[in-house]
Amino acid sequence: MTERSPSSPAESTRSAAPLFALLRGAIAAGLGLGSLTVLVLVLWICSPDPDSSPGGALHTAAGLWLLAHGAELIRTDTLSGVPAPVGLVPLLLAVVPVWLVHRAVRDALADEERPASSTTVTFLMVVGGYLLVGAAVVVYARGGGALSVRPMSLLLPSAVVVMGAAAAGVWTAAGRPVGPPPSWAPVRLHEALARDRFGERVRTACRSAAAGTAVLLGGGALLVAVALVRHAEAAQQSFVRLSDDGAGQVSVLLLALVLVPNAAVWAAAYGLGPGFALGTASTVTPLAFSGSPALPAFPLLAAVPAEGPGTAPNWAAGAVPVAAGVTIAWFTVRRAVPVRAAREEAWSQRETALTAALGAVGCGAGAAVLAAASGGPLGTRALAEFGPVWWLTGAAALAWAMLIGVPGALLLRTWRLREPEENGNENGNESGAGTGERPAREQGERQDRREEDGEDRRRWWPWHGHRGDDGTAGAEPPVPDAVSATAPEPGSEPERKSRSNAGVGAGGTGGAAMSAPASSARVPGPAVAPGPDEDEGFEPYDFLPTDPWHERTVRPGEAGPSGDR
Q1: Residue pLDDT, tens place only, 427-451
Q2: What pLDDT, on a 0 to 100 scale, did the predictor assign at position 34?
């Protein structure tokens, strides 16, 4: 009866989890497509003289949605009648589908109400649901309209982009771990991953690479902004020339905004050195603007430098890769040598240099990927190549990051290891236990341990110091030469008098003296002239007995043996 009982709600929810994952993927695709369709339809409605029907606007929205995934479109309504490819992907437009796929997989795996069956099944179902909607859009886009899709571009890079975003969602849901390598990996890689600092170095290298790539993009965007300010009049003229109505100008403005990341990547490639291509016969670099460019009228293209050899303002673009290399070094050293870390906790020079080199490799790879994604054809013949060459851009970014990031990381490591010591010597007394007090305290602790073990018992005759009122040992008083000069010689009259007085003290009133603390012992000091009531033959002397048992009274507060003993 128990084995044939109906399943519980939790079991039924787990069995329906793949369907929920499939639905999540379809919803993610629908959100991206719907938002873009609404925007295109609003612009079509606001246009005073639309060139197409509502079906044409929907085909345009479908084509733009596929273009955002990296697909290459074919434009058929050209002036020459020859179909022209459009493969330049607006990077800001591509952020929307990538983020939607990433969030769909992450939420499907992290949903507590509907737990996922397994990571692999969830990944496949979300991607499957997304691609099902994409296949329907491809069929609709090929049915008619001015834009069609090249079939090969649907597999590479469109499907790869979707699967990569879904894989990033799986990794995020798992907490972004640096997991163990597969079983077929070399044994040395397994041993390296088993170490404590390997995962930490990998994370540091990833952070430094991401920071360096972000600085490249930020620096490129700054270069574009400065160039647009310098060529503001030309940008305004091209903006007005493209459209004379409000809806058209809004369309041009939105297109310029989604292409701003592309322009930033192009400017970063310009600062790195390889530059970018404006058609098949023109190349723009900091050294020169050569060839005859095929420039269509567009506001962002007004920021292109003037033709001819480069000048000092063009060479100043080299500050962008320098800043990226310094950023890689900084992000590496801030983890390799923390601010309050001891010298033993800091990474070695080899580990620091290796981590900075890995960050430079990641920065070069990121620059290459962005350069490949930011360019593409805008037509045939002269417009077949637009944007930077990906492998040249990646190699230049790697070279700059290596030449600046690795030596900079080593220099910063040396500086940060030296700086805490200087600060410690200067500001050591701020917390009340400075560097000067610490050795004295440690020496006092060692002294107390020796006294407890009975290893450092001083005798009264080699008195090396006095104790003040606070109980701290003072400095040893100097013994002048006059004391040694006035010391009585053996066998002389003063010496016999001293012995007789010592005997009286021991036999008569010596009991109180013997039981007195050692602090009352008189230490030979400098010769003092006798007063009017004193005997001229008086000599200072120690009246304590010299018996061995008196050693216990050498310190203040210790009492001698009792009189009956």
Answers
A1: 444 444 444 444 444 455 545 544 4
A2: 95
Q: How is residue 170 written in tokens? A: 């799986």
Compute the 3-state secondary structure of the chain and give helix, strand, coil in percent, each to the nearest 5: 60, 5, 35
Length of the chain: 565
Peptide bond into 157 cis (omega under 30): yes
Both tokens assigned to 296: 């269509």
Helix and strand element counts for the chain (H, E) = 19, 8
pLDDT in tens, 548-563: 554 544 455 544 444 4
The number of beta carbons lying within 10 Å of the beta carbon of residue 88 is 20
Instruction: Evaluate the CA torsion angle 158, 164, 167, 173 in order and state its sign.
Output: negative
Q: Do residues 165 and 144 lie in contact, with contact meaning Cβ atoms separated by under 8 Å?
A: no
CA distance 82 to 74: 10
Percent of the chain scored above 70 by pLDDT? 68
Grouping H, G, I as helix, E, B as strand and the rest as coil, residue 337 is coil
* φ and ψ of 399, to 5 deg: -65, -45
pLDDT category of residue 457 using cuts at 50, 70 and 90: very low
Three-state SS at 159: helix
The tokens of 8 are what?
Answer: 């519980």
Of 126, 151, 129, 131, give the one whose Cα is nearest residue 141: 151
| Cβ-contact 456, 444 below 8 angstroms | no
- Look at the alpha carbons of 482, 483, 488, 493 in this order and tell me if their dihedral is positive or negative: positive
> What is the residue whose two structure tokens read 């009352």?
520
Sheet holding 276-278, edge to edge: 308-309, 288-291, 282-284, 276-278, 386-387
The Cα–Cα gap between 420 and 149 comes to: 61
By the 8 A CB rule, do 416 and 337 touch? yes
294 vs 226, which has greater pLDDT?
A: 226
Tokens of 88: 């330049």
Longest dimension (CA), the chain: 139
In the structure encoding, which two tokens stand for residue 101, read together? 């796929």
Given CA atoms 300, 302, 307, 313 in this order, what sign does their dihedral have?
A: negative
Q: What is the mean pLDDT of residues 117-128?
A: 90
Q: How far apart are CA 356 and CA 412, in angstroms?
A: 12
Number of alpha carbons in the 13 Å side-chain half-sphere of residue 528: 10
How far apart are the C-alpha atoms of 104 and 173, rounded to whole Å?
11
Residues 225, 229, 230, 232, Cα dihedral to 10°: 120
Six token digits for residue 51: 């060139």
Neighbours of 510 (CB within 10 A): 16
Residue 505 has pLDDT above 90, yes or no: no
Beta bridge partners of 309: 288
Which helix H or strand E contains 449, and what residues bound it?
Answer: helix 437-453
CB atoms within 10 A of CB 129: 24
CA distance 126 to 141: 23
Q: pLDDT tier at 117 (50, 70, 90 boundaries)? A: confident
